[in-house]
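Q: I'm writing up a methods section and want to include an example of the input and output format. Could you take the sequence below and give the corresponding predicted structure tokens, formatted cleanly so I can copy it straight into the document?
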Amino acid sequence: METLSIQGRNVSRIGLGTWAMGAGEWANVDRAESIACLRKALEYGVNLIDTAPIYGAGNAETVVGEALRQHIAAGGRREDYYIATKFGLDREATPSAGREPELGRVVANAAPQFIVEEIERSLRRLQVEYVDLYQLHWPDTLVAMERVAEALLPLLESGKVKALGVSNCSPAQMDAFRSVAPLATNQPPYNIYERAIEQDVLPYCDAQGMVTLAYSALCRSMLSGKVTAASTFTDIRKFDPKFQPPRLAQYAAATKALDAWAHERYGKSVAELAVRWILDRSPYTVALLGGHRPQQLELIPACLGWRIDGEGMAAIDAIVAEQVVNPVGPEYLKPDVRASYGQA
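A: Here is the clean output for your methods example:
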């Protein structure tokens, strides 16, 4: 497995994303299979596990914690996993007459008190005394980045977190954070179809020596090779414009063309091409491969030990440009603004 360093810790350049393991926004997710997937990751050399409290209202973190407990019970070590979790997203409670408030829309919440409470909840669910990387999930327009960084410093000093990261942040936001606290990573959406970070975020991170954790490496399965123009979706993808007409047909056609080209040029599938593409965009990139079944990790060995050269990169660009005439990014994922600063 190819590795890089995050503040002295070697991590795999392919990480396992656990959004689907939360099961809340995804269909047909089995808890036992998710735990088996997490334990299988180590066999493929994957030690970076990325999770978050918002994934299934804490369920993904609980699954990660159970997998880690089983690993330790079988003779493994806590340090075998590099656990990256997040804070900064919440669900607003909406009043309901005569009943308990119902959890509603997802909102950004980086209020300092919320951070203090959230880390304790994450530690309990993960069954650990510290997390390796603690990341702001989304910027909160109601809290200055400097204030967020200030709230995190005591967690670094106490050892509850070993390194700090952000997600979905701009260079200006990262500059503000870094004026107060050390920043090791940024986690943006990045894949063959979603490349906005190449304009400023990726060059910024490379220049600062920061690691870029690229989430949605397979573009929420669009680059898996299994999606067609006739596919239908009942999970989170039903809100994604890429998975709805008229764009679905365009992206499915592009994926089919990329798959044929990848097999012809490299003897690889489109999914293997997509992961390798991220690794070859910068020496500081990690491809976060989402999954919840052990079989979904079987492509990992085929992503290693080869490279996409400049000519190959240009050919990929040409295929995408020809097939996708109405491109769209992952903007639908952006959380709402919460009702007030004080909500925690």
